[in-house]
């Protein structure tokens, strides 16, 4: 499995689990959970987390240095294309030209459901501006394809609402997106526990991004470890190819030939 790597924007990663850095009690717990997850790509909400824009205050980069992790600045909290573009341009300045970003433009403060017209507009601007855009989107196969055609390096359909922990509510749409995509497809939002992550990988997703499922657990560090194993197991199951589903089967799991009394 060492050569089964996730490649995003030309860079290969051993871990297919991407994790957020918000909602932990402090930066130390964040660090411990990230280490337990095995993640190499970590998301950072520029509007909520200090990575240098607040001099003199504790910085996430002191605990999770860019030399060890690939930072993925995101636009959590943005509700217009203009705000999202402005936020990621700020992140690029703070991170010395870093261009791999996660775009999310929300349409509703209660559900945090993506606003797709604004998302498409922001994606187009950012791609033209030289960003490598990973994009949070609905599980609409047509919208996902349009984002790919714009030039996004990965599409990230929701499994269910952000922070809901409801798991994958529409596996059929995810399969349609996966089957038609030429860029990585990663489930983003809605994962609640390890089995949700495993199912996403068994469906053929290239990876899973999560935050609340780990940070909101009673023991975040232990849950991070569980998620790491679930993603790995789900990926191996997908590559192995599951047995066909049958309503019933008259075929015994052990051969009967050669048994006493059998011809």
Features:
single chain, 263 residues, alpha/beta, 5-stranded parallel beta sheet, 3-stranded parallel beta sheet, 8 helices, globular
Overview of this structure, please?
There is one protein chain. The chain is α/β, with parallel strands linked by helices and 263 residues long. The protein is 35% helix and 16% strand. It contains 8 helices and 10 strands. The strands form 3 sheets. The protein has a 5-stranded parallel sheet. The chain has a 3-stranded parallel sheet with strand order 6-7-8, covered by helices on one side. A two-stranded antiparallel sheet has the order 1-2. α6 runs parallel beside α8.
Outline the fold blueprint.
Blueprint: E1 6-8, E2 11-13, E3 17-20, H1 27-37, E4 41-45, E5 70-74, H2 81-94, E6 100-103, H3 116-128, E7 132-137, H4 141-150, E8 154-157, H5 171-180, E9 186-188, H6 194-202, E10 207-210, H7 212-215, H8 220-240
Parallel strand pairs: 3-4, 3-10, 4-5, 6-7, 7-8, 9-10
Antiparallel strand pairs: 1-2
Helix pairs in contact: 1-8, 2-3, 3-4, 4-5, 6-8
